């Protein structure tokens, strides 16, 4: 980052990113959609490297595959799944070198046995690291996450461990994905669309939103610096008042 980087206290501890624009980028380059997603993996690798250089940034969460992405063609779904299978093996040496801990969130019930195995392997191979947490959301949807938390609370209630008066925001939040991390401070979406697309619906309630027109494969350090600059200049009130 450039010399006038914001003070650490003004930096987000948890950054979440919706990586949008791979297909448009590919079309512009007259490449296949698969090539666009491949370039997307490269951009994500670069962002992980950069974020792990900031002591202040402790969690980076990236939306790799949404619950709705199954509606894309078989060819595209297979291409993304193939990239994830590869990345979960190929990226491990560098993640370990940078002390990054990897976590995968989302509904695993529809993932292939081989992908689940690689996810479990990547998580256990990096869990001893003590640097930044990298969370990849695969077959994730914010609504799924909340419904899943409700189901878990119901199971607890049926087992006699809970009654309705115990169900508070804090209690429900313990059952959500990412419950071990603070909520994202900054949520970035690339690719020019201004929406959350069923990403961290609960967890992003008070996140600062930053939208970039850059297509994800072109996202670079200078773009991320701009998001940090914007974040550091904002006053967060969490619904309260700052005099
Ligand atoms: C959005 O671009 C991107 C995705 C749906 C997939 C993102 C996936 C990756 C970057 C690869 C993930 C792999 C790993 C290892 C984490 P889009 O296809 O919606 O682009 P468009 O808006 O131009 O159509």
Which features does this protein show?
single chain; 243 residues; alpha/beta; Undecaprenyl pyrophosphate synthetase; 6-stranded parallel beta sheet; 8 helices; globular; binds farnesyl diphosphate
Structure explained in plain terms:
The protein is α/β, with parallel strands linked by helices and 243 residues long. The protein is built from 8 helices and 6 strands, in the order βααβααβαβααββα. The protein has helices at residues 22-28, 33-52, 74-90, 92-97, 113-126, 142-158, 169-173, 221-232, and strands spanning 14-18, 59-66, 101-105, 133-140, 186-189, 208-211. It has a 6-stranded parallel beta sheet, sandwiched between helices. The structure holds farnesyl diphosphate (FPP). Farnesyl diphosphate (FPP) binds next to α1, α2 and α3.
Could you give the topology of this structure?
Layout: E1 14-18, H1 22-28, H2 33-52, E2 59-66, H3 74-90, H4 92-97, E3 101-105, H5 113-126, E4 133-140, H6 142-158, H7 169-173, E5 186-189, E6 208-211, H8 221-232
Parallel strand pairs: 1-2, 1-5, 2-4, 3-4, 5-6
Helix pairs in contact: 1-2, 2-3, 3-5
Bound molecules: farnesyl diphosphate.
Farnesyl diphosphate binds next to helix 1, helix 2 and helix 3.
């Amino acid at each position: 980052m450039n010399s006038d980087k914001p003070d650490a206290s003004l930096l987000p501890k948890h950054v979440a990113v919706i990586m949008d624009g791979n297909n448009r980028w590919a079309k512009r380059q007259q490449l296949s959609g698969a090539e666009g997603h491949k370039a997307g993996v490269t951009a994500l690798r670069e962002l992980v490297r950069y974020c792990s250089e900031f002591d202040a940034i402790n969690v980076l969460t990236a939306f790799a595959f949404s619950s709705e992405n199954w509606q894309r063609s078989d060819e595209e779904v297979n291409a993304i799944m193939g990239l994830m299978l590869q990345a979960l093996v190929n990226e491990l040496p560098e993640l370990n070198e940078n002390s990054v801990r990897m976590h995968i969130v989302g509904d695993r019930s529809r993932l292939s046995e081989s992908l689940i195995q690689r996810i479990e392997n990547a998580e256990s191979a990096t869990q001893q690291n003590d640097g930044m947490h990298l969370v990849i959301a695969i077959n994730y949807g914010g609504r799924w996450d909340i419904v899943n938390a409700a189901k878990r609370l119901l199971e607890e209630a049926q087992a006699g461990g809970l009654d309705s008066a115990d169900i508070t925001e804090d209690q429900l939040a313990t059952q959500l994905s990412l419950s071990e991390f603070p909520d994202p401070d900054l949520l970035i979406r690339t690719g020019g669309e201004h929406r959350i697309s069923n990403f961290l619906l609960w967890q992003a309630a008070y996140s600062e939103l930053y939208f970039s027109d850059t297509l994800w494969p072109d996202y670079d350090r200078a773009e991320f610096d701009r998001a940090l600059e914007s974040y550091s200049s904002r006053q967060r009130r969490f619904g309260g008042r700052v005099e």
